């Protein structure tokens, strides 16, 4: 990953470490600056003009593994790159992480405009940790791209087999008939070892860089898309709590009834969707929602659903969002 970032920047950046095994042991945000500068994680999260303040709750153990880097490169004038720690395999993934790695990756995935998962042509194995990360990216599958790096290190025949094996492995992990776009290339600053794929790799590089270059132009549309997704999620969440609250008795037996509702939450989701005509695709993940409900002593303490606010939210979908889209198309 670090080699790829260096290739895009056209230069080294402060604190760069490159090696055959995962050598990046920290999250590095690479931003534009007139002079080379490194900012520690705690200081980076305190800056009001940077989008990293939401990382503070992950604590000092994580902040010691976060840093911001400023350097002068044309590509950084429009985008910010984040280099993540290398994915560990075997016993390594169970030791050395003294912070919630999965939660941090989820935080970045929710806010990124493009997520690139990199594989080397010689190392296609998907470890347990990488599998968890890829599964975590499922809600953001439209933003995920896969890059098969150092593709020139193998022959054309072998490259076809490697590409097929990678698609097979990704299909098993993502559990979808269609996987995300997979690019092939060689981004490590060395001449091509097998020139027979030169035209193919050049076209793949052009397609990938075109994808990246379009990020600033499409940023407004993506923000509106995220707003719509969050608003739909809020509406469904409100109706779920409203539905569960209505199932509770007015007097005694609330705790037992609430426990039964949580135990059969999958069925309650289905009943709620039918009653209020809600899309099942907008419902939250079952198990995390169940765990959150277990921490609530009495669902009846939630306020009643305000139907006026629901109508206001429906107005957002029918009037405000179309207006935003129209203004975005005209560059306002």
Note the gap between the termini. 36 Å
Helical element count?
A: 12
Please trace the helix and strand order, writing H or E for each element: HEEHHEEHEHEHEHHHHHH
- Rg is 23 Å
Low-pLDDT segments, ≥5 res: 90-94
Strand neighbour order, sheet with most strands? 2-3-1-4
Strand tally:
7
Helix content: 40-55%
Biggest pleated sheet: 4 strands, mixed
Give the amount of beta strand, in percent: 5-15%
| Mean pLDDT across all amino acids | 84
Structural class comes to alpha/beta
Shape verdict: globular
SSE layout:
Layout: H1 2-9, E1 27-32, E2 37-40, H2 41-44, H3 59-63, E3 66-71, E4 81-83, H4 101-111, E5 115-120, H5 128-136, E6 144-149, H6 156-174, E7 182-184, H7 198-213, H8 215-247, H9 254-263, H10 265-276, H11 286-294, H12 307-329
Detailed description of the structure:
This protein is α/β, with parallel strands linked by helices and about 325 residues long. It contains twelve helices and seven strands. A four-stranded mixed β-sheet has the order 2-3-1-4. α8 crosses α10 and α8 packs antiparallel against α12 (about 305-330). It is globular. The model is unreliable at about 90-95 (pLDDT under 50).
